[in-house]
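Target protein
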Amino acid sequence: MASISKRNGKYAVTYYEGDDRHPVMKSGLTASQAEKLRDKKNAEEKKWREQRKKAREKAKKQVVKAVSNNAGDNPTDATLEEYMEEFIEKYGTKHWGDSYYTSSRSRMINYVYPHFGQHKIVDITTQMIDTYYDFLIKECPLVANRGKQKGSDEGGHVTSAIVRDIHKVLRTAFNQARKWKYIRQNPFNDADLPEHKEEERPAFSPDEFEWILDYTDDPSDYERYTIHVALAIQYYCTTRGGEVGGLQWPDYNRTEKTLHIYKALDRVAKKNLNLPKLIIYYTFPIMNAYNKTVVVLKAPKTEATERFSKLNNLMIEKLDQLKKMQEEMIANIFGDDYQDNQLIICQPNGRPIMQEQLNRKFKDIIVEMRENGYKFTSVPEDKLDDVVFHSVRAASATKKMQVSNGNLKAVMRAGGWAEPDMVIRYSKAYDDDQVKIAQKMEEDYHKGGDAKPQQDAEELLRIIQDNPELLTKLLAAIKP
């Protein structure tokens, strides 16, 4: 850029010209002349640089287009890692909720960028993708994290479930790249995914789960009774763990016998708090300023999730009892130290109970019951450790399908599901159900014979007596 220097009471301006940008000095100027010339040459320099930049970008696109058969009308030489960061910033932040945003970006960082991120997106082919997926299944180790990762196996390699999750994100990203005209075709559309069979989540039958409700029904112990009420809400209202933890006393309408389910308790990364899809109703007080996450009450992921769950008299009794116990603890133990967040399911001091805490408490109860001689047969012995608090939702869906005679729409509404296939996925069939079906078919068969025609004749006679004009019309219709 141009600069001004002072010499012998006069001013000189040094600037650059030509394609080689050789320096030129003009001296003997007054201060005002020097400033005007400097500003003029700076404007010319800026214009020249912009023209050069456009020329370089045009040449780069021509080179990219020449070497790649998949370059679009607006080609880029971005690597997969560079493009995915752009895609997540421009697309993911607008369309993804906190959980999906966090898990998707983690999979990119852990499994995509280190092994596949160096390739330019215009050069990626379906064959390269198939080879990469094969590598993930056979060679790529799982990245260590807290708890058991979805799709993990004993050998420690990435499994088909994780590969499919990765593929879903990359396919969406490349569809967007095609819309942005970076590429002409999406190579992920034709990729060969590894075979994957969705494992059915183990869940207790309704009858066996009701044993657990009976076992935990102890109003003399606040913590035990709290998990009892949490399990009862999960069972009778077909809730999710976060929904149970997010319920507050204003959501309970004793007169209308309803629970308003419209928010969920969750832990959210502080850096994700500004995601547009994330609607937060309340942020709990931060206990440690160094934590990277905060506990919040947030809106559910879909509109179908919000619902008013009808309560039976049994649930009303349990909720009233829990409310009474909390009030007594505030009055007699905690006083002003009680953290009154208006939560229905909470710790003795009023703090929230996270889903992972509900999970641990539920598992402890199962272990305790087995030690006391209870034998659960609806879940195989080697699968009992896989039963979690969320599994109660399956027992609930199963029971409601049974008592409603398979009314999918009613069960969908009760559980906040948007699609009927989710009800089918959650509800279970047990051997006892098959026995009941066989018995019911036999009973219906024995009810047959002459009884049905006699009932039909009596019904027809009653209709004719109530509507004599129908007989006239019938006789007229059968005349030759």
Summary: The domain at 206-426 is CATH 1.10.443.10 (hpI Integrase; Chain A). The first strand starts at residue 3 and ends at 7.
